[in-house]
Amino acid sequence: MTHTEHRAPSIARAAARARIGGWLIALLASLLLAAPALAQEAPDALVKRVSQEVLAIIKSDPKVQAGDQARIRDLIETKLTPYFDVDRMTALAAGRAYRSATPEQKKRLAEEFKTLLIRTYSTALNQYRDQSLDYKPLRADPNATDVTVRTEVIRPGQPPVAIDYSMGKTPSGWKAYDVIVGGVSLVTNYRDEFTREVQAGGVDGLIKALAAKNGGGSAK
Amino acid sequence: MRRRSNVPPSPRRIVAAVASAALLAGCAATPARDAPSPDDPFEPMNRVAYSVHEVVDGHFVKPMVQAYVDYTPQFIQLGIRNFFGNVDDFFSFINAMLQGKPDKAGHDLGRVITNTGFGIFGIIDVASGAVPKGEEDFGQTFGVWGIPQGPYLFIPIFGPTTFRDGSGWIIRGFTTPIGYIPDVPLRNTLWGIGAVDLRAQALQAESIVGQAALDPYTFIRRAYLQRRRYLVYDGQPPPAKEDDE
């Protein structure tokens, strides 16, 4: 580094510096823009991306193809459950009983419910693996914090089955809090069941019933 | 009954009116004592029917139907499904008409004509893909007419239904073209195969219920009633009033 170079940088060097500077600015800008964009992935885009990822794995993974339940459950737990608001689902399904439950009961209830949902979903996936999905356009206000994402399972020679996801905006992105299959809401269906168990044995009775149901297999 | 002006009086309406009167009388006669669900005033009786169903179905019907699903070649099963699906389409047409939905009725009639003519009595579903399959039935028509669903019923072998939907099935049983086939052995064979096919369709959903439900009776009841409500409103049910969130 000499005095002269500093004072009179070559044209080439100036150009190189400008390019690096521009590149850095672009990188910083994209990071700044991308972070919130990722966190706020639109709910319909999220449903499409996640379901396509999962369907691709189902179609390519030999263990899943062979009906390996442990593998299917693992897939659901890692790929699907992060996009479900299990606490909210539990609160909705348990209703009044949830509000009067202790934090510890709430936690255990949500855990058991999550396990049950994973198992149910894996049974359902096993049944519907060959069908194709159709994604309906999202009709919602851009500022909405609660939307329904509509999809359809196409079955040859039979009426299509609508699968709708009720989704809410959370600090960590959009999350589903109900799945409605052919008009049957999962949360509504469990509400009757949960009410029944709570009436019989309180919140602890409900937790016990769920645990007993989940205890049938080896996976947690 | 709100749509009185749109629907010409017909024997079906009279039957429906009688059915609804009967079910209202039923409601009045048996106040729901401590039944947790107002939809199911006959729950104790239904639960007995359900346990009978589990034994009979589990030991005889289901293994037979499962064998049919496992050992019958796929294309035969599909042909059978399509044949009875064509009968469903015929009833979907009738009911779309009764509900004052000419567009849907047109689709259904188009499917029936195409599949009956070009699909060898419906065995091949040639219309599939071009025209969406309808799923209207008498139970839904009564619902559209404003007749309440009435008490929930669980009937062994037949499965979940309501007074309203059950009345619809009875009407269908008397009016289905299968019943007018003059050759008795053929007619009876078709009744039998139709029943097996109907039961086979429920197998998939059933395995999910087995995994999902804490109490299968409650689970099936809620799922059935939700599904029927959804169908009556053609997939756009108004939000149910829930006491929680």
List the helices and strands and how they pair.
The complex is a heterodimer of chains A (220) and B (245).
Chain A: H1 3-7, H2 11-39, H3 43-60, H4 62-65, H5 69-79, H6 86-94, H7 96-99, H8 103-127, E1 132-135, E2 146-154, E3 161-170, E4 173-181, E5 184-185, H9 186-214
Antiparallel strand pairs in A: 1-2, 2-3, 3-4, 4-5
Helix pairs in contact in A: 3-5, 5-8, 6-8, 6-9, 8-9
Chain B: H1 11-29, H2 43-71, H3 74-98, H4 102-118, H5 138-144, E1 152-155, E2 159-162, H6 163-175, H7 184-201, H8 203-212, H9 216-232
Antiparallel strand pairs in B: 1-2
Helix pairs in contact in B: 1-6, 2-7, 3-4, 5-6, 5-9
Description:
The complex is a heterodimer of chains A (220) and B (245). By secondary structure, chain A is α+β, with helices and mostly antiparallel strands. Helices cover 61% and strands 15% of the residues of chain A. Chain A has helices at residues 3-7, 11-39, 43-60, 62-65, 69-79, 86-94, 96-99, 103-127, 186-214; strands at residues 132-135, 146-154, 161-170, 173-181, 184-185. Chain A has a five-stranded antiparallel beta sheet with strand order 1-2-3-4-5. The longest helix of chain A has 29 residues, at 11-39. The model of chain A has no long low-confidence stretch (mean pLDDT 82). Chain B has 245 residues and is mostly helical. In chain B, 63% of the residues lie in helices and 3% in strands. A two-stranded antiparallel sheet of chain B has the order 1-2. In chain B, strand 1 and strand 2 form a beta hairpin. Chain B is globular. Residues 1-19 and 21-35 of chain B have low confidence and may be disordered. At the A-B interface, helix 8, strand 5 and helix 9 of A face helix 3, helix 8 and helix 9 of B.
Average pLDDT rating of chain A:
82
Percentage of helical residues of chain A? 55-70%
Radius of gyration of chain A: 24 Å
Shape of chain A: globular
**Broad structural category of chain A:** alpha+beta
Distance between the termini of chain A: 65 Å
Mean pLDDT of chain B: 84
In angstroms, what separates the terminal alpha carbons of chain B? 34 Å
How are the strands of the largest sheet of chain A arranged? 1-2-3-4-5
